[in-house]
């Protein structure tokens, strides 16, 4: 047997492992991504020219495969280059869905070509598992994509959890029956596909927008497992290793994310918080807020020793990261120390805010993680909250009835002055009141984040 | 148990542990690019679509296979390009 292809697969597998490893550190991440991409290219071309089919013959239809590669590359490249940094999470979700659909299609074709009679028990299991997991990942990712694009709200109905569980049981039973050859035929396989697709939709529909990153990360690991099923099916080591690696890494990433929000995965998936105006813990709702003019805010900041900027998703939506950087520059020229406090779940995904600020040329070492900035808060003269809400809500520390109780927050209330840039008094994603706004050392500057920041930059400049 | 299946199981278990170890201590700053990079890597599913397309004979399988390869390519190319764009932002611009 020719060992060239297995060796190429081994090389590709090593690049995947190395790539993931290097992605774990800011300095090497870019190289890691390129190494993995190189390995993928080797695996793709190796497969095209060296792989053998079930009949031991080399693969044919190479011209069609090349055509499909060209089409996919063109579309994928254009989409990936055009997407705004703020829309990154939904783009990842979309590409993840494509991988899931690919895995599901492979299973359908395998059934059509070989038929259940020609399949071993293991082959049947891998085919059905790849089909179900791939389909759930596809439809779930598309729903997550639509939700993050704002084209779909949270849809809930009575007994939803019951319907979902029943559907899941039905999918598992039907899949089991097909694997065990109690049921068969392409029609049953298509029915299974339809049921799995429906489950993916219903499973993601009720989950709130703020929890979408967790869902995407979970579906990401699903697609990994679906790819690994293909590895079992074809005894293909690179698919197996790549798939399982992502399945495992994705699961851990999901758990780490939920932990940063101080919640369990089950809580995210089944309690549907993150959309309803739950209203829990409206502690200070009776007080009044203090409004501030841009000029006053500018004076406050320009004569401060240290200013901490707390950016949230509102900053990203308003595309205000560049103006934010300008404000930092102006303040620095006045001798003010400026730092950014980054909450682990600021933005739409953990680390999303860092990407957005890096895009605006904010230096990496100015971004301070929550654990490090909190002890500095009492020595901070002004903290300025830009489009963030839940991550600075003190109810997370004090109000046991609050849905975000226990989530670590950035302790802006400990700084001498807090300025909150906000569009309106509307509550954040968790849908709860923020008593911070009513504290005596807090003042509000209403308006679009970008407009307000622009005003602040001009005011600071004129001082 | 078939020794080939057994060695596959060993491989799966080791990969699970490796995946956990690789991710566990990554700062939250890098979670988004990491998720995106992992997303690109499971695009390896494209290998399966190439194998199945390479054996397709009738029109229906040709169409499905073509579609599968396109979708797999979208996952791979889109995934790696998006990740690269994100990470480019971290590069010090001089």
Report on the structure:
The complex is a heterodimer of chains A (about 475) and B (about 90). Chain A is α/β, with parallel strands linked by helices and about 475 residues long. Chain A folds into 2 domains: about 5-270, no CATH class; about 295-460, TPP-binding domain (Rossmann fold), CATH 3.40.50. Chain A is built from 17 helices and 6 strands. Helix content of chain A is about 55%, strand content about 5%. Chain A starts with a helix and ends with a helix. Chain A is elongated and about 80 Å long. In chain A, helix 4 (about 90-115) runs antiparallel to helix 7 (about 185-205). Chain A has a 6-stranded parallel beta sheet with strand order 3-2-1-4-5-6. Chain B has about 90 residues and is mostly helical. Chain B has 4 helices and no strands. Chain B has helices spanning about 5-25, 30-40, 45-55, 60-90. Chain B has one domain (about 5-90). The interface between A and B is large, with 119 and 79 residues.
């Amino acid at each position: 047997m020719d060992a060239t292809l297995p060796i190429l697969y081994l090389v590709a597998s090593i690049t995947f492992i190395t790539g993931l490893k290097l992605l774990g550190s800011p300095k090497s991440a870019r190289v890691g991504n390129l190494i993995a991409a190189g390995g993928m290219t080797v695996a793709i071309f190796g497969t095209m020219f060296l792989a053998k089919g079930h009949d031991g013959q080399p693969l044919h239809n190479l011209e069609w495969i090349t055509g499909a590669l060209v089409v996919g590359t063109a579309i994928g490249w254009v989409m990936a280059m055009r997407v705004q940094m703020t829309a990154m999470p939904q783009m990842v979700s979309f590409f993840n869905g494509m991988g899931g659909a690919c895995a599901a299609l492979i299973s359908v074709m395998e059934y059509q070509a070989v038929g259940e009679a020609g399949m071993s028990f293991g082959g049947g299991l891998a085919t059905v598992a790849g089909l179900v997991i791939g389909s759930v990942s596809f439809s779930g990712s598309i729903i997550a994509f639509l939700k993050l694009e704002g084209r779909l709200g949270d849809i809930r109905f009575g007994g939803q959890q019951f319907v979902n569980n029943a559907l899941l049981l039905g999918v598992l039973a039907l899949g089991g029956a097909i694997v065990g050859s109690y049921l068969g035929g392409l029609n049953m396989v298509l029915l299974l596909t339809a049921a799995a697709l429906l489950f993916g939709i219903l499973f993601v529909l009720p989950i709130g927008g703020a929890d979408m990153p967790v869902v995407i990360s979970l579906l990401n690991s699903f697609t990994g497992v679906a790819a690994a099923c293909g590895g079992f099916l074809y005894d293909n080591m690179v698919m197996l290793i790549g798939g399982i690696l992502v399945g495992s890494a994705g699961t851990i990433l999901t758990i780490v994310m939920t932990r940063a929000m101080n919640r369990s995965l089950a809580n995210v998936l089944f309690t549907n918080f993150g959309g309803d105006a739950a209203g829990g813990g409206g502690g200070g709702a009776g007080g009044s807020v203090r409004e501030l003019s841009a000029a006053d805010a500018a004076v406050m900041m320009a004569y401060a020793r240290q200013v901490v900027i707390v950016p949230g998703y509102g900053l990203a939506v308003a595309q205000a990261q560049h103006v934010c950087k300008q404000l930092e520059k102006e303040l620095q020229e006045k001798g003010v120390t400026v730092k950014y406090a980054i909450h682990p779940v600021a933005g739409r995904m953990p680390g999303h805010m860092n990407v957005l600020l890096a895009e605006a040329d904010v230096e990496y070492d100015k971004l301070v993680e929550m654990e490090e900035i909190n002890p500095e808060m009492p020595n901070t003269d002004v903290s300025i909250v830009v489009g963030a809400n839940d991550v600075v809500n003190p109810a997370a520390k004090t109000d046991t009835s609050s849905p975000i109780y226990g989530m670590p927050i950035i302790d802006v209330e400990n700084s001498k002055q807090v300025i909150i840039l906000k569009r309106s008094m509307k509550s954040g994603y968790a849908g709860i009141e923020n008593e911070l706004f009513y504290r005596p050392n807090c003042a509000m500057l209403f308006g679009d984040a970008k407009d307000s920041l622009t005003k602040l930059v001009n005011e600071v400049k004129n001082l | 148990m078939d020794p080939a299946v057994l060695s596959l199981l060993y491989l799966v278990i080791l990969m699970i542990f490796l995946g956990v170890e690789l991710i566990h201590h990554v700062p939250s700053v890098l979670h988004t690019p990491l998720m995106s990079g992992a997303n690109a890597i499971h695009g390896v599913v494209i290998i399966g679509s190439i194998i199945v397309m390479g054996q397709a004979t009738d029109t229906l399988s040709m169409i499905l296979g073509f579609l599968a390869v396109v979708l797999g390519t979208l996952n791979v190319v889109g995934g790696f390009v998006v990740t690269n764009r994100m990470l480019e932002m971290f590069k010090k611009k001089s």
